[in-house]
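input
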Amino acid sequence: MLLRNLRYCLLILVCVNCQHADLQSRLAILEEVSARATEAEAWARQDEEVRDRLTTSLNQLTADRDWMRDHGIMHSRFTDERSGFHGVDTEAAYAATVDAYNNLSISAIEDIEKCLEAEDYVDRLRLFFDRSEEEDEAASGAKNDAGTSGIKVD
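output
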């Protein structure tokens, strides 16, 4: 009888261990499903935020397009009636302006280029810039004070 009770207790322990293992397995599965659901919710929130931002951008572009239509602006150009450039060759005026800018001469750059053409260009540049600094000091009336050199002579 004792042997039978021991076997019965052993069988109950085995069943309890099996159920415990099964319960542990189910708990692990539940934890994994919960983690995946949390991750999916995060992705869903992020997708919703992106969709909202895109909707806002689209609404702004639509409003801008409607405003441009209302003011006679089509395809980033003014219509002839509203622009004030009816019959004016704006392309030629633009080309002339670009050409004038490209042919613009700046006297200081021309002086520097002349200095660079000489063999002793470093000395000539020093003389040019020293002369410019002296002219600046004479024009401003500042002499021997703590100007740009940082040295003040008493």
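quick obs: The chain is about 75% helix and 5% strand.
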